[in-house]
Structure prediction request, 476 residues.
Amino acid sequence: MSTEGAPKSTVEMIDAEGRGVPAKPYMDFTVAYDPYSHKATEYKISSCSRPHMRAFHLAWTSFLMAFIAWFSFAPLGPAIKKSLKLTRNDILVANITSVGSTVLARFAIGPIMDMVGPRVGQAFLLAFCAVPTFFAGLVQNLAGLAIIRGLVGIVGATFVGCQFWCSVMFTKEIAGTMNAIAGGWGNLGGGLTQAIMVGIYNMNLASPSCNADCAWRNAFYIPAFALLCAAASVFALGDDSPKGKWVPLHKNASGAAGAVASNIQVWILVIQYSVCFGVELHVNNTAALYYNTRFGVNLTTAGLVASLFGLMNLFARAWGGMISDYCYSKFGMPGRKYAHIIITICEGIMLIIFSRIGSFGGAIVAMIVFSLFVQSAEGSTFGIVPYVDPPRTGGVCGFVGAGGNIGAVLWGVLFLFTDTFASGYLYLGIIVVAVGITGVAINVKDNPMADKTMRSTTMDGTMDGKTSAEMKARAV
Prediction:
C-alpha cells in the first residue's frame, strides 16, 4: 500500500513497531478499515458494498430466513395440536427436539466454519434445512413431528455463521454493536414468523378446497423456498473475509474445538447465554399457546400478540451491544461484564412479573418490557465473545450459541413438570436472576498485544488472501 497522503506519524508508528508497510486490500473498500487486518472500523448500514457491509447484510438476512423457518411451527401449534390429536406435553416434546438438535449443530459448525469460512458454512446449512422444511406438511403423528422439527432445527446453527462473519469483517471496537445488530435483526424472524405463518394459514384457509388441516400443511412451502434463496445469495454474493479467499489457521476442526472446550470462560458464557437466548427460544415456542390457553384468544390473535416479543429484536439486541461497547469505552472489559450482569438480572425480574399478571393487556405490556431485557442480554453476551479466544472465534461463537439451545431444552423440560405456563415462567425468572448474579465469574481480558501479534503475521502472506493468522483474526 502506498503511504502517499498518509499522516507521517502513522508511517513512523508502523516502522517503529516493525510491522512493515501494510498490504494493499484486494479490492477498493468504501468504509474506513484497519490497514493490517483490513477489518472495517466503521459501518454504513445503508451500504451494501463489498466485502464488509455486504457480508453484514447477508449475515443477518440469512439468519432471518433461517429463524422464520425454524419457528414456523410455533404459531401453527394450536392447529397442529388439534389436527394430530396431540397433548400440551406432546407439543413441548416437539419444541425440545427443535432446539435440541441445534445444540449439536452449533457445537459442530463453529469449528467447521473455522476451517471452511462463514460464507460456505452458512450457505450449506440453509440449503440442507430447506429439504425437511419442504416436507414438514407430511407429518402424521408426534414421532414424525419431532423428527421433522429436529431436522429443521439444525438451521438454528446459522446464528454461528451470522456472528462469526461479522466478527471477521469488523474490528473489536465495533464488534459488540455489529454482532448485536446482525443477531437482533436475524432474531426478528422469531416475531415475523408468528405473523407470516398465521397469514399463510389464513390465506390457505380462504380457499374453498382447503380446510384447517390442509391450511397448516401447505404453509411450509414458502419458508422452504426462502431458505433456498438465502443459501444461493450467501454463496454467490458474499466474500469469505476482508482478505478475500478463506485460509484456515488450524489444520483440523477437532483441534480447534478441543482448545475452545478447555477454556473455562467459554463455559461461563455458555451458561449466561442459556438464560437469555435460551429463554427467547422457549418463549418463541410457547407464547402463542400460552395466550391461547390462558386468555382464551384465537390462533390469529395469539400469534400476532406473540410476534411482538420477537419484533423487539429490531432494536433491543442492538441496544445490548451498544451498551456493551459504550461501557467498554468508559471502563474497559469490566464495563462489558457488569453491563451484562445488570441487564440479565433485570430480564429475570421482568419475567417473574410477566408470569404473575392475569390480565391480557397487562401481560402484553410486561412481555414487551421483558423482551427488551432478554434481547439486550444476548447483545451484551456477544459483546464479550470476540475477546475470549480471538483466533478461534468461530468455535467460541458455536459453543456459546449452543448454550442458548441447551437452555431452551432445559426450560422445555422444566415446563413438562409444571402445571401451567405461568408457573413455569415464574420458576424460569428466578433461575435467570440467579444465573445473572453468577456473571461476576466472567474474567475475559482485553489483550492489545495479541492484536498486534496477529496483525504482524499478515506481512508473510499474499495479496489474494493466502495469509495465515490474520485471515483468522476474529474481532480481536
Summary: Residues 1-17, 449-476 have pLDDT under 50 and may be disordered. The first helix runs from residue 8 to 16.
